[in-house]
Design a protein that fits this description.
82 residues; three-stranded antiparallel β-sheet; 3 strands
């Protein structure tokens, strides 16, 4: 069976990582894991998934972020200035 070629299970003390096929990975954690830290990890994984097919270069992303920051400060500097 083709799926069995992809199945890989890694077990740690309180974590199980199971790659059932080439398209899905299941991670099982202990309920004692800090929810704030876990949310940051989930957000990072969502970012990786969202950008996995992007053709954009890091320099382009940096330039866009700089333009957005400049625009935001131009619109909001009155709220923070003296």
């Amino acid at each position: 069976m083709v799926l069995s070629l992809y199945r890989k299970i890694i077990k740690f003390d309180s974590m199980l990582i199971d790659r059932k096929n080439k398209n899905k990975i299941t991670i099982t954690l202990s309920s004692s894991v800090d929810s704030f830290g876990l949310q940051r990890i989930i957000d990072y994984v969502k970012y990786l998934e969202a950008t996995s097919r992007s053709k954009a270069k890091q320099s382009e992303a940096d330039q866009l972020a700089e333009e957005i920051n400049e625009s935001w400060w131009a619109k909001n500097k009155k709220r923070f200035g003296k």
